[in-house]
Amino acid sequence: MDAAPATHAERMAAGLWYDANFDPELLEARRRAASACRAFNACDPADAEECDRLMRAVLGSVGAAVEVLAPLTVDYGSNVTLGDGCFVNHGAYFMDGAPVTLGSHVFVGPDCGFYTACHPLVPEERNAGWERALPITVGDDVWIGAKVCLLPGVTVGAGSVVGAGSVVTRDVPPGVVAAGNPCRPVRAVTDADRVLSGGVPRD
Prior knowledge:
By secondary structure, the protein is α/β, with parallel strands linked by helices. The protein has four helices and 22 strands.
């Protein structure tokens, strides 16, 4: 039988309740991540190579041809995965106590938040620093509009579009336009949505 997670970092990784507020190991990890974000956010955008290097130093796994615009905020960074061709606009926050995984060619609008953390509802437990983190997964070819809030444990299916300002509290199926608070599917994405004909805009 496997041993139970011993440290709060191990408990966090296992999806169990852990001390997010006072555990020294986790506090130090968040300090390191904050410093790495500060370096990336201060980078001159004209120095694309250095910005790319510093962005990759913040995040856990980054594919090819990925662009992330400052400012970027993470809790740990190490739990964030961005697939090939992702674009993340200004002001993204990855609260990555659990894995936040974006597939290939995901477009993220400005000021979006990926929030994996859950807090106890009982005040004294919340004040004692207990927290649990659940993963967020976004499939390939998803467009997430501006100021979208994704909550713990949700999955957005491949090829879907999440409308600006939505609060994603439950899974979004693949291939739909979804919007609202709480976010719900509105309709399917269909060939009628195409803007190109023979590679030329229809206008």
